[in-house]
Amino acid sequence: MESLGVSSVQSLRALSALLSSQRDDDEEEDEGGEGGKLGPGHIGPSPKKDKEVTTAYMKKSSKDIWSEEEVAEGSHYDDLADPRPQPEYEIILKQSVGTEDLFLGLSGKDPSSMCCEAMLVKIKLPDTMATDVVLDVKEKFLDLRTPKHKLGLHLPRAIHSQEGKAQFFSERGELEVTLLLKRSMDFINTQ
Predict the structure, then answer these.
(1) Disulfide-capable partner of 32 in 36, 87, 117, 175 (CB 3.0 to 4.6 Å)?
(2) What is the pLDDT of residue 144?
(3) Secondary structure of the chain in HEC code, one letter for each residue
(4) Separation of first and last alpha carbons in the chain
(5) In this predicted model, which residue has the larger pLDDT, 18 or 190?
(6) In Å, how far are 23, 37, 81, 93, 143 from 77, measured between CA atoms?
(7) In what order do the strands lie in the sheet with 141-145?
(8) In whole angstroms, what is the distance from residue 52 CA to residue 7 CA?
(9) In this predicted model, what pLDDT tens digit does every residue of 62-117 receive, in sequence order?
């Protein structure tokens, strides 16, 4: 039994010598030559000391948490000290569907959101006049301000900020904003 133990230690040392690249002089002194203890951590290449970590992104200042590219568009509109409540809103995706789509399926459109052409945002603004509404639309952000309400809405999809329309219904106290979507697969989708 004891000869088996000695041969397994020698096998372990031979395996360690085979798998490891070259050892530092410090490690050889720590092992103590033939009488040193070896364990599973000694198999394989030795870990590198003083490894310097390099990243592609370097912070400009140690106090910076995010870079300007990492901050979502429209976040500068967020005003946490503003006490005005956020109005109720609903986002609906729309697509133009004709009889050839509905009955025959000739255009290749399907009911998925990938085939939608527009986004309708319905915002409930009770006790508000149309002249009180200030609306600013960016590619991924909708900012609405009234004397009684404030809405900073990050849009789920990119839109054409210059191609949209807004309509205020004073009898319902509701603003409907229709925004055309930027569709990344327009060359595949058919109109």
Answers:
(1) 36
(2) 92
(3) CHHHHHHHHHHHHHHHHHHCCCCCHHHHHHHCHHHCCCCHHHCCCCCCCCCCCCCCCCCCCCCCCCCCCCCCCCHHHCCCCCCCCCCCEEEEEECCCCHHHHHHCCCCCCCCHHHCCEEEEEEECCCCCHHHCEEEECCCEEEEECCCCEEEEECCCCEEEEEEEEEEECCCCEEEEEEEECCCCCCCCCC
(4) 82
(5) 18
(6) 58, 64, 12, 25, 8
(7) 134-137, 141-145, 150-154
(8) 40
(9) 677 777 666 666 555 566 677 889 999 999 988 887 777 777 777 777 777 777 88
Residue listed under structure tokens 């149309």: 130
Pairwise CA distance, residues 146 & 131, whole Å: 9
